[in-house]
Amino acid sequence: MLLRPRRAGWVEGPILAIRHFSVSGKCFENDPSAPKSPSTRPRKTNIPPANLNTKNVNSSRALPRRIVDARSLAASKTNGKPVNILRSPAIRNSRGGPPNRARKPRAPSKSRPQQKDRKAAGRRRFQKNSDAEEGDDVQKAELENVYQELAEKTKPTPTRYQPQPPSLQNLSETWPSLPIGATASAAGVVDKLSLLSGRTIDGYVPPNELGKRLFEGQYVRFLSEEERSEALAAAKSLAQEQADKLSQEKGDLVDPQPVNFKRASEEEQKSLVQSLVQGKYPGIKPNKESPLFGEIVRNLRNNETYQAAGKSSQFMTKIESLMASRRPAKRA
Q1: Which residues of 73-97 are buried (b: 16+ CB within 10 A; e: fewer)?
Q2: Lowest model confidence (mean pLDDT) among 134-138, 250-254, 314-318
Q3: Alpha-carbon torsion 248, 249, 251, 252, what sign?
Q4: In the predicted model, is pLDDT for residue 311 greater than 60?
Q5: Where is this chain compositionally biased, Polar residues type (predicted)?
Q6: In the chain, % of residues over pLDDT 70
Q7: Burial, 235: exposed, middle or buried (Cβ in 10 Å; 0-12, 13-18, 19+)?
Q8: What is the Cα Rg of the chain in Å?
């Protein structure tokens, strides 16, 4: 049945009244204080509910509300062109929407060979570290073995003591220097030589110290040929060091000073024997002016304090000046 446009308004009015009546009936049912009676129940109408979906005319179910961006309503259009609006990303799996699609396998990229190279480099690095650790363990084991061998070598071994009876050869070094015979005289000479060379009986002086004394021109006494050769080598090394130092200072090559032994002359040997063994000393010249000066000179010779060069002569000059100042002046 078709209706003209004039009758459309007349038909629409009763429909709206019926809809309002049905709503008021529902509100009355929800009220608990109102009595329920069969006369107050709303009548069922055969009018279907309004279709809110404009796209699907046949659908009678209300769809969920759409999300409306307020920026699109407030944005102003310039020159009739649409405005770019930043919208939120759509929900991946909305209710009633299509299910998520399965991801396709990625195509092999060009970086796979690089990943293989990295894995190979990591394996090589791990293998290198493991080899280094094994090498460290082997080195530690070798060091422990060496330390153990050194400890075993340095461990003192017990030896049985076998005392030796005293003999003339053992006692000659410590023989008393008393004038009781030829042996005592020889022991006295050895004692004097030890004192001159700065050595003590049964003492030890290292070879480098003996070489230093020999290089400086001091008296040196050797107890064996081996000690003599070691001291001579030490003296030569000191001479070479001094020559190198002088060469650096002067800028020219300087030869080292020769280090050798010179045989003592007969006069030196005779004076040593007379002073150390026989006890003969040069006589004191008598002073004609006063016998007091001769006694002073003899005491100065026996006193070791005035044995240095110039000490005795300085003392004698002082004594002579004092004696001259106390002499009485001669009258004319």
Answers
A1: eeeeeeeeeeeeeeeeeeeeeeeee
A2: 134-138
A3: negative
A4: yes
A5: 51-61, 156-174
A6: 52
A7: buried
A8: 65
